[in-house]
Amino acid sequence: MVNSVEDPDKYETISIESKIREGVFHKVVKDLETGKAVSCSCKCWSKGKKQCAAMRTIN
Ligand SMILES: [Zn+2]
């Protein structure tokens, strides 16, 4: 998979299963320099720019 955002030296993608919807995974992108979640595949982030529960577990 080629994705310019997911530079393996700087970012790590972590899949976290939703606690609300079984079988739904948040693909959280973690910035390895700051140790913080910078992006997520879910609607909370992609549409609302709100940190979802999965992102908050990383921060
Ligand atoms: Zn999410």
Please tell me about this protein's structure.
With 59 residues, the protein is an alpha+beta fold. The protein has one domain (11-58). 20% of the residues lie in helices and 32% in strands. The chain contains two helices and three strands, in the order βββαα. It has helices spanning 43-48, 53-58, and strands at 11-17, 25-31, 36-40. Strands 1-2-3 form a three-stranded antiparallel beta sheet. The chain is globular and about 30 Å long. The mean pLDDT is 89. Residues 26, 40, 42, 44-45, 52, 54-55 line the site of zinc ion.
Ligand catalogue: zinc ion
What sequence of helices (H) and strands (E) makes up the elements? Answer: EEEHH
Which geometry do the CA atoms define? globular
Low-confidence stretches: none
The largest sheet, given as strand count, sense and whether it forms a barrel, is: 3 strands, antiparallel
- Which percent bin holds the helix content? 10-25%
User: How much strand?
Assistant: 25-35%
Q: Please, how many helices?
A: 2
- Structural class per helix/strand content? alpha+beta
Domain count: 1
Rounded to an integer in angstroms, the radius of gyration calculated over CA atoms is 11 Å
Beta strands, count: 3
Distance between the termini: 26 Å
Task: Sum up the structure in keywords.
59 residues; alpha+beta; 20% helix; globular; binds zinc ion
Show the helix and strand layout.
Elements: E1 11-17, E2 25-31, E3 36-40, H1 43-48, H2 53-58
The structure holds zinc ion.
Residues 26, 40, 42, 44-45, 52, 54-55 line the site of zinc ion.
